[in-house]
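We modelled the chain as a single entity of 524 amino acids. Its sequence is:
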Amino acid sequence: MSIKRPDEILLLKNSKKGMFRILFGRTGIVIGLLLVQVVALFTVFSFLESLMPYAVGTILAFTVLMVIYVINSEHNVSVQLSWVTLIVLVPGFGGLLYVFIQTDIGHRTLKQRLKRIIKETEADLSDQEDLMVRLEQDKKGLFNLAHYTEQAVGFPVYENCSTKYFPIGEDAFKEMLFQLEKAEKFIFMEYFIVEEGYMWGQILKILSDKAKAGVEVRFMYDGTCEFALLPYNYTKKLEKLGIKSKVFAPIRPFLSTHYNYRDHRKILVVDGRVAFTGGLNLADEYINRKEIYGHWKDTAIMVEGKSVESFTLMFLQMWNTSEKDRSYLTEEYKSAPLKEKGKGYVIPFGDSPLVDDKVGQMIYMDIINRAENYVYIMTPYLILDGEMVTSLQFAAKRGIDVRIIMPHIPDKKFVFAQSRSHYHELMKAGVKIYEYTAGFMHAKAFLSDDIRAVVGTINLDYRSLYHHFECALFMEEVTAITEIKKDFEETFKKSQRVTEQDIKNYNLLMTLAGKALRLFAPLM
């Protein structure tokens, strides 16, 4: 009989406590009530179908009509295929589920609210008309992209801004603490994941001290944290420290597609002077204080100058989705231009599942399509629609050096299987796939031709490109490009290039599962 070590006993106790909290705490209650509603809906749909055993033709006609409706909808082709498959595989129920999702009140209410907020803030950002005139004459490609982002989501292009790139989470965290300590007027923070530990503890202490000193501190986190990582009503604890806080889309015990739209953004703004974004959430694995999937590779970017206003506005827009009395870029939140002239151009931008354009995907595809020599990509996931696959394949076929760095140790096995299911079709076209052998790749970065780059929160998967609120910084000819290029070169050295033989050696069941799951990826 083996004797458990003290650390094993502690881990076991913690696991039992965690399981107990999930089963009998608020999380368990919410899960239970949601499951009850799912079962109830399924029972109702089944009951309605069972009342009409003689009317199979009615159900068949409904299914055909729903298929025709979906095919003629404005959904992406991949989304259409997923829905058509579900509707045909589960006649009646599949069509009713589609109707429920498309008519969901929570979804429509949030969409209307966001449209109203965008309308209210369309004149808040500084006018860049003179810059656009010069770009139209001298940099047509950048002008076209800037025109698109301003028309689609209201975020303009800026010049004379300073950028600083962080190739690892530890470096970004150190700079974040430094900038937080310098705060005099306000601190805005918006994050997807917050978990109690060393990283959050260090930040929280500064936020508390600054709030006591009269600095306005606002903190917002996604509802999945409240559901899985933080105690319920954690906002009350923060309020007691003087920190204005709220949860975006807290998960309640009723069904709504509203929950599908998560706030995946990572934004830190200090005094309107500096702004951060990137892959880092506020938990210890992001700075390698805790190891769960090997070494955690992440990146971040800091920007200074007038462009910080765009990140401030992104935060205020999200903050105001649950406010009746809304205020945005008032004078105290404005950003001052840099005294010294900065190099290059930046476009801070937000993306939303509730606007018509998939801005993150469009900007990524613009980089791929305009590349003349190379495109380098870091992403934790690779779950692509047909348009993105075609862009990557075409770039490689026209001689562009396309390289993608993925994790070697995954955080989600079935998602990783879906990602790997794209390897063969991309590699066949000439795309080079690498896996970061040291551990988990969580960075979201694009680099092309030593000229343009994007660092932000946007993964190459349906969740990020279609279902999440995201943000990033597009850069052209800025000083940080050199450091981003250096980081890619160093990361290639720590990664192994995937071969066709590697693909043949993958676990057969996981390979088949990955290919099967691709069919429903747009709905997941």
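As a brief sanity check on the tokenised model: The two ends are 44 Å apart (CA to CA). The CA atoms of residues 195 and 283 lie 5 Å apart.
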